[in-house]
Design a protein that fits this description.
alpha/beta; Rossmann fold; 5-stranded parallel β-sheet; 12 helices; 11 strands
C-alpha cells in the first residue's frame, strides 16, 4: 500500500484560535518535527504561539514552504469562512493544504474549485485511502511495538515518537507508524484508523505495519483504550492488526476519570497490561509489556519521580515520563 505523502516544509496555520491549547496539532509538529516546520501563520487575536517564525503566505512561499497545515481545531469543528479564504489564498500562492479537521476540505466548494484550478493537493488526513482488506492475523516478519493507554489523550503518540527517536539515535532500524490525524501530519505518512470501517480496521493496520527485516521495529501510535465505552473498538482492531511482540502502557498521573466521560473510571496500569496480553494471544501469543510511560506534566519533579518509582516497584517494569525524563531505560528493556 502506498500511503499519501504530505510535502514539507510546512507553514503551520493557527488562524485566530482564542485558546492556545486548541493548537495541539501545530504544537506536536513543532515539538517532534521542527525540521519539517518552516514558519507559522497567525491571524489577529490568535492566542497560540509555536515559537516558529511568523510569515505571511508570500514570505513562506518564497522561503520554500510546500504545505499549509491547519494546526489548530476550528470552532465547532467547522471551517470558518475567513479561514477558508486564507486557504484559497495559500493554494493560489502554490501551497498544498493538509487538515485533520472533521470537515473534509473538498466539502467546501471554493476550496475544491481552487484545488482543481491550481492543481494543488488537498490532504484530509482523517479520510482513509483504501480500499483495505480484512485482517488475516497471519504471522509476518519484523518487530512491532504498540502504545496502549488507560484512557485517550494520555501520551501514546508522544511516547511512540520518543521511543522511535531513541531507537534511531541508537542506529536501530525503526519506523514510526502514525494512526491518528496529528501523527500523520507530524510524520507525513500514516492512517487515521478511527475513520476506517470496523471490518477493515485490522487489515488496514496490517498494511500499515507490513512484513519487514527481522531487526526492524515498527513503533505504532496507539488509539483509545481497551476499557473505553466509546473507543475500545478502535483500540482492539489496532491491537489485532499490529500483532505487536511488545507494548507500552501509557497513563496520565492523577487522572482517575475518563476524559469527557464523567462517571467512568480510567483503567489501572495493571488492568491494561492484563487485558492487552489476553486479547492479543490469538495473533501475538508471545506478547510482553516493555514498560510504562506516565505523563507527569502536572506534577513537580520530586512528585513525578516518586510516581514513576512506585509504578516500577508495583509492576517490575521501567517507568518514565518520555518528554520529561527520556526513554533510554525503557528502550534498554525493550531491546534486552
Amino acid at each position: 500500500m502506498t500511503l499519501p505523502s504530505i510535502a514539507a516544509p510546512y507553514l503551520i496555520y493557527l488562524g485566530d484560535t482564542p485558546v492556545a491549547e486548541l493548537a495541539k496539532t501545530g504544537a506536536g509538529l513543532a515539538f517532534w518535527r521542527p525540521e519539517r516546520c518552516l514558519a507559522q501563520l497567525r491571524e489577529p487575536g490568535c492566542a497560540a504561539d509555536l515559537g516558529l517564525p511568523d510569515m505571511d503566505l508570500a514570505q513562506a512561499a518564497a522561503a520554500g514552504a510546500k504545505t499549509l497545515v491547519i494546526g489548530t481545531a476550528a470552532p465547532g469543528g467547522q471551517l470558518p469562512p475567513h479561514w477558508a479564504k486564507r486557504i484559497v489564498e495559500a493554494m493560489e500562492a502554490g501551497l498544498d493544504i493538509a487538515s485533520g479537521l472533521h470537515v473534509p476540505l473538498r466539502s467546501n466548494p471554493d476550496l475544491a474549485a481552487t484545488a482543481d484550478r491550481t492543481g494543488r493537493q488537498l490532504h484530509d488526513v482523517r479520510l482513509s485511502g483504501g480500499p483495505f482488506p480484512i485482517g488475516n492475523g497471519l504471522p509476518r516478519s519484523g518487530r512491532r511495538l504498540l502504545m496502549v493507554g488507560t484512557d485517550c489523550a494520555v501520551g501514546k503518540k508522544y511516547s511512540a515518537l520518543a521511543i522511535h527517536r531513541e531507537l534511531q539515535d541508537r542506529k536501530v532500524p525503526a519506523t514510526f507508524r502514525a494512526t491518528g490525524q496529528t501523527g500523520v501530519l507530524i510524520d507525513g505518512h500514516g492512517i487515521a484508523v478511527d475513520a476506517i470501517v470496523a471490518d477493515f480496521l485490522a487489515g488496514a493496520v496490517e498494511q500499515l505495519t507490513p512484513a519487514a527485516a527481522a531487526d526492524h521495529w515498527d513503533v505504532v501510535e496507539g488509539q483509545g483504550a481497551l476499557i473505553h465505552p466509546a473507543y475500545a473498538g478502535v483500540s482492539l482492531g489496532l491491537l489485532h492488526g499490529a500483532q505487536p511482540e511488545a507494548f507500552v502502557v501509557c497513563h496520565e498521573a492523577g487522572r482517575t476519570e475518563l476524559s469527557g466521560f464523567p462517571g467512568h473510571k480510567t483503567a489501572s496500569i495493571g488492568e491494561i497490561i492484563e487485558l492487552t496480553t489476553i486479547l492479543s494471544r490469538r495473533v501475538a501469543p508471545n506478547i510482553r509489556c516493555a514498560g510504562i510511560c506516565i505523563n507527569t506534566a502536572r506534577l513537580p519533579e520530586a512528585e513525578a519521580l516518586a510516581v514513576l518509582a512506585e509504578a516500577e516497584a508495583e509492576h517490575g517494569l521501567p517507568a518514565t515520563d518520555p518528554v520529561r525524563f527520556g526513554v533510554a531505560k525503557l528502550v534498554d528493556h525493550l531491546l534486552a
